[in-house]
Amino acid sequence: xxxxxxxxxxxxxxxxxxxxxxxxxxxxxxxxxxxxxxxxxxxxxxxxxxxxxxxxxxxxxxxxxxxxxxxxxxxxxxxxxxxxxxxxxxxxxxxxxxxxxxxxxxxxxxxxxxxxxxxxxxxxxxxxxxxxxxxxxxxxxxxxxxxxxxxxxxxxxxxxxxxxxxxxxxxxxxxxxxxxxxxxxxxxxxxxxxxxxxxxxxxxxxxxxxxxxxxxxxxxxxxxxxxxxxxxxxxxxxxxxxxxxxxxxxxxxxxxxxxxxxxxxxxxxxxxxxxxxxxxxxxxxxxxxxxxxxxxxxxxxxxxxxxxxxxxxxxxxxxxxxxxxxxxxxxxxxxxxxxxxxxxxxxxxxxxxxxxxxxxxxxxxxxxxxxxxxxxxxxxxxxxxxxxxxxxxxxxxxxxxxxxxx
Length: 406
Known about the structure:
Residues 319-341, 387-406 are annotated as: Disordered. Pfam families: ADP_ribosyl_GH. The protein has a single domain (9-313), classed as ADP-ribosylation/Crystallin J1 (ADP-ribosylglycohydrolase fold), CATH 1.10.4080. Helices cover 55% and strands 0% of the residues. It contains 19 helices and no strands. The radius of gyration is 20 Å and the shape is globular. The two termini are 36 Å apart.
């Protein structure tokens, strides 16, 4: 059942961030798999399949949140915004996040060494996957949308196709945020297509939209467009899925993920457009509530969206960081996995104290992901003090090797 039309900027901002997280978390278990393998193992991917029924986000959502944080800090100063994003991205990289693409690794190493420019000549989808929130934040400011979008993309990617792919994702999100959910989706993407000058990328987007207009099957469209982490493939197939199935967010996501390839990044971009068009109220609440509600979880993303909405109106607002309060983290005994739930005080002490230590944030994030829903009493007893996580060996990464395109 559809919710009310969510026309408030805050609803579209939370929609774009939560839509990114939803697509990312749904597609994560299928990254790098073929359509045939996904069908055999999972059937229709209409729930989280990574670790039980809990959803986990990856670099697509995390980098989108870092972009949002930088925009909230410096909404009118592109140079300061870029520097803030570079610092945040380098800190995030040093925490050993899951699924970092090769282009992002190389860029972060260049930043760490003080080399300029930090971006590398890669046509991966790493800049595009995080760009949608820029378009929604600057929905009524096209000059800033272009300037910030290009500058933030070039932090990691300098290939014109990657940069214009990011600009297209942001422009499409902007068009969605400025329209009603019933708007003609192909027309929105045709309007966004105007920011693309690169011939190869533009022709790929046109093919995707043409396939949607002809009613092509998703499997056939995936074969024509491609589903890899190459930005030309990613953006074209996401455009097809949005134009074909975007009236029903869950169907659009399951169709995109079922095609395989770089499933989480394609679904993250698609989910961002769906959230920007439909607003948070028309995304599946039951699934969003099952996304792990730690750093970069739903509570954090909603807080970022609320902050961005305030900043759009020119009002000052405290910028959230890794947790909703923007402070050092949760207090022992009150850490929640999703709104309205609590977890063991042992785990709260373990993660809360670690996150309260500046040097322990990354280890706590890794520990939190590795432990999932378990209650780590035995592990906690072996860690003294709780914030000293050196020597902890977390569970093997169950994800496939990250695509070198990103």
